[in-house]
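dude i think i finally got it to work??
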Amino acid sequence: MSDILQVLPITFIPIFVAIDIFAVLPIFISVTGELRDTEKKTIIRHSIITALLVSIAFVAVGEVVFRILGITVADFKIAGGLVLLVIAVLDLLRFGAERRKVEDAVGVVPIGVPLIVGPAVLTTLLVLIDHYGIIPTVISLVLNLLIVWFSFVKAEAITRIIGKNGIVAISKVMAILLASIAVMMIRIGIENLIK
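look at this
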């Protein structure tokens, strides 16, 4: 148990950075702005449940698919690191809402997937499970989804406190952190290949 508690911050932070609630929050507000509170609650519930189920399913099936295809953990770390690096660079060069643009639909898709749980989160989950185990990674995922749920429930208040410019600035910092995590993943993957 003490081992899990020691690893928890290490697994929590990359998932938090990959979700980037500060980029998702303005989109959620714009999509649900004219809806009634009961409709918003339903959308929030569906989004969080979808994000959790998709994450767990990807973690369960992902490793089996990799074995069948002959993909090693080192291969995935390098590929995942490159994907995260591209996502982070796009976030830094564009406005946060531009990458995660929502068209017509609301609810499970696109809010649950890919806004909350997209390629960055799924890649991060598999790498963290390989490094630190499934229990601390899933606990960190659930804690992050609780933060997303709370942020959605209090979306308008958070936006008023931080301001739109503050949210954009924090989102850019998250993108830099995501780029750093991506470079670390690539480095570890290359080191594993060399060994």
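The chain has one domain: 13-194.
im so relieved honestly
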